[in-house]
Predict the 3D structure of the following.
Amino acid sequence: MVALLVKGLYPADLSPHTDSDFVNSIFHNKGVVLAARLLLVSAAVVLAVAGVYIVLSVAIRMKKGEWLRKAGPFEIAETEISNIESQIDRWRAAAEAGEEEVEELTKRIEESDELIEQLKNPGKKAILKSKG
């Protein structure tokens, strides 16, 4: 496979050497042209492999639930993450406490509604007096 690639990259014929410029004389050599082509192909292969590695690496990290914490000059410090997590825990506790308070107030409102209904209905007054 590699031999076929090298054979395909090898320059079959070069134009006749008419100019004696330094750069033209360097690139008129078949070995130099072959080396330049191999360099370009190897750079393309390296970039392709690096691209596949980056895509697979990001996909695996996303699957594991790991998030990007540093990108170039921007970084999220561990202390900031712990501060955010503590804020989340604090707000969750506050929400749970508020939920308990709402349940207590709902229970009191239901009891008040029952008492109002008993006071509106004269037949149930006797029951209230016997309880009280």
